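Readers of this paper often ask what the protein records in our data store actually look like. Such a record has a labelled line for the sequence and another for the backbone structure tokens. The tokens are whole numbers drawn from a learned vocabulary of local backbone shapes. We quote a single record here, exactly as it is kept in our systems:
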Amino acid sequence: MKRTLILLLWLLGAAATTVAQQAAVKKIIEMGTTDNQVMRHLDILTNRFGGRPIGSDAYENAAAWLRHEFDKWGIENHLEEAGELSVGFNRGPWFGRMIGGDQPMTLHFVTPSYTSGTQGVQRGHVLIEPTSESELNRMKHVLKGAWVLVDGKSSGWPVGHSDSLRAAIKQENLEIVRYNDSLMRRGGRDRATYEKMKKPKTFPALYYEEMVEAGVLGFIQKAEVPLRALYDRVMLQQQKVDFDHLPQVCDIKLDEHQFDIIYQMAKERRDFWLEFDIRNHFKLGPIKYHNVVGSIRGSKYPDEYVIVSGHLDAYDVATGGIDCGTGIGPMMEAARLLALSGAKPKRTILFVAFAGEEFGLLGAHAYVKTHEKELGKISNLFNRDGGPTPPVGIAVSQAMLKDFEEICRPIKDIRPDYPFEVTVAKPRKRPTQTGGTDASVFAVAGVPTFEFTTRDFKGYNFNYGEIWHTERDVFNKNIPEYQEHTAVVTAIVALGVANLDHLLSREGMYADE
């Protein structure tokens, strides 16, 4: 009789829990469709704080605000130190124009993070960089106060720092000059001799140090539109670099159409000037940076986890509206919906805003290292780091299929016009190296990182390549209805995984295990 009573009480408790969780899902859907605040989160994140490279005031302000929001929703939260930079960086306004020539021109350009700005407004003449020592010697006097057009097309990185590579190319070019001179001595100046001559090798700012020493104002390189700007990773990776050893001249990436016009004018030795005002400011280091971690504690398995994540940092020539606003915004709204819905997950749901993803997945590496003993207790990491397109399905291992079919069943009630399908993913080779997202760090460690399949199925013509690390990564590139739907789906699925009576099975994830 006693055992029967205990079983009955257990069944009643389980039934009550099920009803409570169903009510929470219903509340999540109701709030998510009538009072969805994902675009508010994105507006504040991108338009009040803007671009957010680690080491900047904007990043620190965004992290503090995220904790403020978690506090408002009753979500426990804390900072976890993820690393330290030797210096910090804040970007101010920038402006450039051409004076002289056929007509004035406002210049369209960017500079990578952690590179030098101007010393106020600086005006200078324009030269094409020397490609040989003889050219350098001929130009030495006029390099002072000049803006120098350098070889190559920018990929967003600053002009290379490699002295050894430059030295090797200079030596090769010296040999080429000697070879060509010998041809001229033997064959004269006929056409056959010229056809045998070799061209010197080029390299952006081949005589970098010599030009800096001569007093150039900065270097200008051609760049595709939309303009892409990354950061000076070499400087930050060198432990000896500190506030007393910072870049001294500007590194400008100029609209390729304007560059071609200016290059031709410089080639014709016409009189004109470029004027720049670039306010790139450094901060005295060391500067610590942190992951932001919020949590809704599990009622039954508090030491087991479901993680919802994105990265808080973003490049700063734009505002990080997509990369990674589309991860942070839905993560925040999913957290709000779960916290205010009355959901009581069985295992702990973590909301992690990683630091330094753009600087080499730094926050994710730090988290995995700090929480190494907990990795086996992570049911799944739902990381979002892509476009504003909505979830239309999820592909999971065969062992997880039934769980996810049940978990995702309520999604069809959110918006009947939005497709969603649970399918089986074939076992894949376990990764041994990280890739381009924070999730890859966890995948290398064997943590399940199944994520939603997304698609621009309504035809908003979104192009990720257009915004990826470019000046167009801004708030208005988001698609509100897609982002709102993403937040609701994320909340429902995270809660469903957290409420399973077991961790998701890792069987069949990898083909070689």
Q: What stands out?
A: Residues 7-14 have pLDDT under 50 and may be disordered.
